[in-house]
Design brief:
The complex is a heterodimer. Helices cover 82% and strands 0% of the residues of chain A. In chain A, 45% of the residues are buried. Chain A is built from 9 helices and no strands. By secondary structure, chain A is mostly helical. By secondary structure, chain B is of the alpha/beta class. In chain B, 33% of the residues lie in helices and 27% in strands. Chain B contains 6 helices and 9 strands. In chain B, a hairpin with a 2-residue loop joins strand 1 and strand 2. In chain B, helix 2 crosses helix 3. The longest helix of chain B has 16 residues. The two termini of chain B are 31 Å apart. Classes of the chains: A mainly alpha, B alpha/beta. Chains A and B meet through helix 1 and helix 5 of A and helix 2 of B.
């Protein structure tokens, strides 16, 4: 297990270093997040629907699509000089490779979420800081399972034509449960309702994470073997 | 040290490998000549375990850890420096830190890349990238080398240096399979020769001191063209 985690760390660190050097996906995700929030801020009619009701949906849709930019990139870097062959040839388990990619994707999405939340507070004036701890919990629970599925699909589609189009098409159906739950919990949190009212949704998110992190870890080795 | 028994593989209706059998011991170098599409790269990928053969079996003593691979692509990350790439791959192969530093310095010096160590791979010339790829393949001091057209992109001097290096490695007991479409290349390194066409070894045996001119004539006769 120690060796598995060490190799996963090496891969995640390499991926993050590559991303911070090239800044391709990160810059795109930040710009995308800012643009979407600006458009929604200026395009909505605050007298028609209260901000507190609309804001959670806007936030989570923004997070989801920004995350896809990162997921698309996850295995692209390995195709550049067929480095993926090198990784598959190296004496590391396929699970290490998956967890490394998964970890790097989680960090990427976390960074996008931090910037997104700051912009969201700025544009929508929603008092996120009052519920920051439960909101952090919802963010973590809603992101983990979705990113696990996204990492698996990213590996599956990377060698196909139109990979950038294929990934959202495959991923969106799997995004519905965590997205719906995250929006439902966030609405209640922003309305200053106690977290206990969202226990059902939180259980769904935790179950989704457990099921899909396990399933994708088991399925990944088969997706990268010719 | 390295063996293949009745290997077969197909891509749809195209037979890429058809009954390939051979064995290689310490210090032996098998050079496989064949035209484009003969199945040479597929054979190397099967030997490396990157492709599961449809029939037959292949193996390397010590498994994946024992293999050093040079393919058509460098398997290097463009946004990492040469030194960072070598460090990443060496660490992935669990080379101890001090040993890794020593090998990295030795390979960079031997391949004339000392001045390029801190440069990102994407800024290197084709020949320099190929030399960095050779360093990457040798960083864990593998006992078995699988080389797919390793002289591609190298100028005369670098090709001669690579030839000398491979000769030294063979003298130190490394087993090597080198595939190329160019009979002039690699002949001097070969202890054994195979001519490959349509997925089969149409000729296979010891080189017996034959020079490139003799082999070219034999290749034209057996395979056709040159």
């Amino acid at each position: 297990m120690r060796e598995l985690l060490w190799h996963a760390w090496l891969i995640a660190r390499k991926d993050l270093r590559l991303e911070f050097r090239s800044r391709t996906a990160l810059a795109s995700a930040f710009v995308f997040t800012a643009l979407v929030l600006v458009v929604f801020e200026h395009g909505r009619d605050p007298t028609a629907v209260p901000t507190i009701d609309l804001a959670p949906s806007i936030l989570w849709v923004t997070f989801s699509f920004a995350a896809m930019l990162g997921l698309n990139r996850a295995f692209q870097a390995e195709l550049e000089n067929q480095a993926l062959d090198g990784l598959l040839l190296a004496p590391i388990s396929r699970t290490s490779l998956f967890w490394g990619k998964f970890g790097a994707n989680l960090v990427f999405v976390a960074l996008v979420q931090i910037v997104g939340v700051l912009l969201f507070i700025l544009f929508f004036n929603v008092p996120v800081w009052r519920v920051w701890l439960p909101f952090l919990l919802v963010c973590a629970l809603a992101t983990v399972g979705f990113i696990a599925v996204g990492t698996l699909f990213s590996a599956m589609v990377v060698k196909t034509r139109f990979a950038e189009l294929m990934l959202p098409v495959l991923l969106l159906p799997f995004l519905l449960p965590p997205l719906t739950a995250a929006v439902a919990v966030t609405v209640k949190l922003f309305a200053a309702r106690p977290l206990s009212e969202s226990a059902g949704w939180l259980r769904l998110l935790a179950g989704y994470d457990l099921a899909f992190v396990s399933l994708t870890t088991l399925l990944f080795p088969a997706t990268v073997t010719e | 040290m390295l063996w293949a028994r009745e290997l077969s593989h197909a891509f749809g209706a195209i037979r890429a490998l058809d009954g390939i059998t051979f064995q290689l011991d310490r210090g032996q170098t098998l050079v496989i000549f064949g035209p484009n599409g003969a199945g040479k790269t597929t054979l190397l990928r099967v030997l490396a375990g990157l492709v599961r053969p449809a029939g037959g079996s292949a193996g390397v003593d010590g498994g994946r850890r024992s293999i050093g691979w040079i393919g058509h692509q460098s398997q290097l990350y463009g946004h990492l420096t040469v030194a960072e790439n070598l460090h990443f791959w060496g660490t992935l192969y669990d080379v101890p830190a001090q040993e890794l530093e020593r090998r990295r310095a030795e390979l960079l010096a031997r391949l004339g890349l000392e001045a390029r160590a801190g440069q990102q791979v994407r800024t290197l010339s084709r020949g320099e990238t190929q030399r960095a790829a050779i360093a990457r393949a040798l960083i864990h001091d593998p006992p078995v080398l699988l080389l797919d057209e390793p002289f591609t992109g190298l100028d005369r001097l670098a090709a001669d240096e690579l030839g000398r290096l491979l000769g030294e490695l063979a003298a130190r007991g490394r087993a090597t399979v080198l595939v190329t479409h160019d009979v002039e290349e690699g002949t001097e390194l070969a202890s054994d020769i195979a001519f490959m066409r349509a997925g089969r070894f149409v000729a296979y045996g010891p080189r017996d001191g034959r020079d490139a001119a003799t082999l070219t004539a034999a290749y034209r006769e057996v395979v056709g063209g040159a």
